[in-house]
Design a protein that fits this description.
Strand order of the largest sheet: 1-2-3-4
Number of helices: 3
Order of helices and strands: HHEEEEEHEEEEE
Structural class: alpha+beta
Strand content: 35-45%
Length: about 170
């Protein structure tokens, strides 16, 4: 009988230690994560961010990841994947999806492929920053440059809220 009492006290003590350790789990400083995303998007993409929405609390765990949403002041949304590099609070992030924003890097590739296919012109295309807020009916200019350095203007028209565009070489 004494043996069973010792075993149940040991189990209770072990459970208490596990509960105590779980309560002591360190969490990421989510204000730092939000600031890193906001500052980084402004620096890398040129979009001022008005709000970053992340989970309230995330435990520090090397390799773990979670998503945040960055809202540019001009409109649209960026979905951001945050990955913990270690269990010390060091993270990296990347934009994995956008809504209401036109991905200009993808557009440049599309226009360059279209110029080659439709007109036989091999050119690099530059449209500016990495993203532009989708505003149906608005137009903007990109620059196409061929291997000899000749440049031409490409007029891009935003067709709808889904980011569909039309373009024409001037």
């Amino acid at each position: 009988m004494e043996q069973a009492g010792k075993r149940s006290r040991s189990i209770a003590a072990a459970a208490a230690i596990v509960a105590l350790l779980a309560g002591c789990q360190r969490s990421l400083d989510m204000d730092d994560v939000r600031s890193a995303i906001s500052d980084g998007v402004l620096e890398q993409v040129g979009l001022a961010i008005s709000e970053v929405d992340c989970p309230e609390s995330i435990a520090m765990e090397a390799g773990a990841s979670f998503e945040c949403t960055a809202i540019p002041g001009e409109g649209g949304k960026l979905m951001v994947q945050v990955t913990q590099n270690d269990d010390q609070g060091n993270v990296t992030w990347e934009v994995v999806e956008s809504e209401g924003l036109l991905d200009l890097v993808a557009l440049e590739s599309t226009i360059a492929a279209g110029l080659l296919e439709q007109a036989g012109i091999s050119a690099s295309v530059e449209c500016g920053d990495k993203y532009r807020v989708v505003e149906p009916g608005n137009t903007f200019q990109c620059t196409a440059e061929d291997a000899e350095g000749r440049q031409g203007q490409v007029t891009v028209t935003m067709e709808d809220n889904e980011g569909n565009v039309s373009w024409a070489l001037e």
